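tokens incoming
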């Protein structure tokens, strides 16, 4: 899962589709509308239409097909048991329960795969307390580095025979490795904060303002938004 997030982060910053060029604010509003409609609507035709819209967004963003299939299928693992427990003998209820998380997951992968993470966190920094928004921003970025460090530590652990031997020895070595990782994270955070102070940290980290700068690509986002509103108006009461 972490590897998937890292890959999406790279795609959001490196690709140049029309969705990548659109402003983060317009994409976030569209994504919020899709998710709210998927959660609130009782209409199966509307859910099917929203699923097609979310799939169209994800497919036209240039994201790898295997990534899209993996993300779309991921929620079904957890929904399957819930569907089995609430099955009423019809296909309408399982279809509704499966479409909702798939719409949300496809919308999320489209948003995160086309929007760099600073632009996603920038609107949050306007409404959340400064310390909380900065903590979220730093935690998201530091998570990838710490997990990469953990992966290299685990590889060295196995190459040096740490995966074999008595359980007591393995637990002791795993504890030493975890302690090393904690010390590395503490040292890294101190160096990071010192670097921020040297570069004139003003008490706000995620202060970027271009998340709301419009472009011609926002016309496509507005067109999809108008389509979604039309579908909701026509299909909300459909059975």
């Amino acid at each position: 899962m972490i590897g998937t997030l890292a890959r999406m982060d790279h795609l959001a910053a490196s690709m140049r589709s029309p969705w990548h060029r659109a402003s983060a604010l317009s994409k976030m509003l569209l994504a919020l509308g899709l998710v709210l409609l998927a959660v609130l609507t009782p209409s199966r035709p509307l859910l099917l239409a929203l699923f097609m819209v979310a799939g169209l967004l994800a497919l036209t963003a240039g994201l790898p097909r295997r990534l899209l299939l993996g993300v779309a299928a991921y929620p079904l693992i957890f929904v399957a048991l819930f569907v089995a427990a609430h099955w009423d003998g019809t296909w309408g209820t399982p279809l509704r329960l499966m479409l909702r998380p798939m719409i949300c997951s496809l919308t999320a992968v489209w948003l995160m795969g086309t929007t760099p993470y600073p632009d996603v966190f920038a609107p949050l920094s306007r409404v959340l307390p400064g310390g909380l928004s900065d903590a979220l921003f730093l935690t998201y970025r530091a998570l990838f580095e710490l997990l990469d460090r953990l992966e290299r530590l685990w590889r060295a652990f196995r190459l040096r025979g740490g995966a074999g031997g008595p359980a007591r020895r393995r637990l002791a070595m795993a504890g030493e490795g975890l302690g090393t990782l904690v010390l590395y994270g503490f040292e890294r955070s101190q160096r990071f904060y010192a670097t921020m102070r040297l570069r004139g940290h003003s008490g706000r980290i995620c202060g970027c303002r271009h998340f709301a700068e419009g472009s011609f690509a926002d016309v496509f986002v507005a067109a999809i938004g108008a389509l979604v509103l039309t579908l909701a108006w026509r299909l909300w009461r459909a059975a």
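note: The chain is about 80% helix and 0% strand.
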